[in-house]
């Protein structure tokens, strides 16, 4: 509990949510969770109960108005929650308020809340529950045409739950993502705490967010926070679920980038736990650098993991073979795992879960993501930044040397992308820029180490050539004195470079 926070909290145990709530939900109070269809209300509510039992040994009562208990048991089995076992142990109890739904639907305004509250009270006392979930009130309130009745019954329900001294979650529907908090626009006024779940359609893609609208008397983080629903891990708030992990001692050992020239520019290679951002337009050498980085790791006996979003596996193997790198042999040897995919087949949040799961399962010492720019096709810049923040927490915890690549929109125009490239650079330890320039009717390449935290590095902008043996870093480009031409932005086009390089 924070010093200024006099409200007792109940941790939900939901991945990342307690960091948003700064400790959990206020104890002994009802919290309204609203959202449109498919926004994750039932998952949130069910996890509140399940994780309360699994993590804190706090029994709970689930009051269902729509789904049957059997359906809820089945839906939560995939998350590893043994609801039937908990029922047998007296830790979980259902109050099935859906049984008489069809029968009473025709009697508008005749729902007996008194009987429902008696059933809830009995279940709470029977198992000693400290948590209660009601999912969802919309099925009941749909019977009342008068918002005044909805408000009165909401207040009655909220007061009854408070008198039971339980911490409760009440779910309710919304009509749209950004038009009011609840369907009847009154429910939020009779409870102390309101959480909104959104499932926004943006650029033909769904993006889930959670926002705490109010926790009366209790501080909390504001704004919308990205979350996903993972089939194995359930409700996961990104990136907060992965921040605050135990810090590890910063590595002082170095690993090779796979290019001796680049190692020298970086002061002797990358630190073992470094996150490296390699920025450059298409064809400038990002994939080659990534492959050499992986090859160097395998040569040192390390496990290496690569995700590529621009090429198929066959293309990647062919291109690698052209530089003398046998990806197939490295994969068959068990030291390399490569995942090739198109970003459009999943959401950004799903990709983060996949990458994290691969890291946990394969335990690599090196990781490559090639390229972040491809992921920007399916996500907003803010969402991509959240992914990188979360990914950074995961790889730093496991001291994985990580190489991220990004590309400008155009090969020749001074347009910056990903649009968050500068923010990404601030999250990484090493920033390397590959660029093109024009010289004497030829297109040539440069490389510059823009930043290298905690280490001296070569500040020269050096010319780069690529042949069948790989990338070769040459002498400084003496007359290239426009810093923007070698930093994170694209070079001026056409370039004006002297002939003496």
From TrEMBL:
EC top class, as a word: transferase
Keyword vocabulary terms for this entry: Hydrolase, Kinase, Phosphoprotein, Repeat, Transferase
EC number from the UniProt entry: 2.7.11.1
GO MF entries: ATP binding; hydrolase activity; protein serine/threonine kinase activity
Annotated InterPro entries: Circadian_clock_KaiC-rel, KaiC, KaiC-like_dom, KaiC_dom, P-loop_NTPase
Domain spans labelled KaiC: 8-251, 253-487
Alphabetical list of PANTHER family matching this protein: CIRCADIAN CLOCK OSCILLATOR PROTEIN KAIC 1, PTHR42926
Protein name: non-specific serine/threonine protein kinase
Organism, as annotated: Streptomyces bathyalis
Annotated gene: kaiC
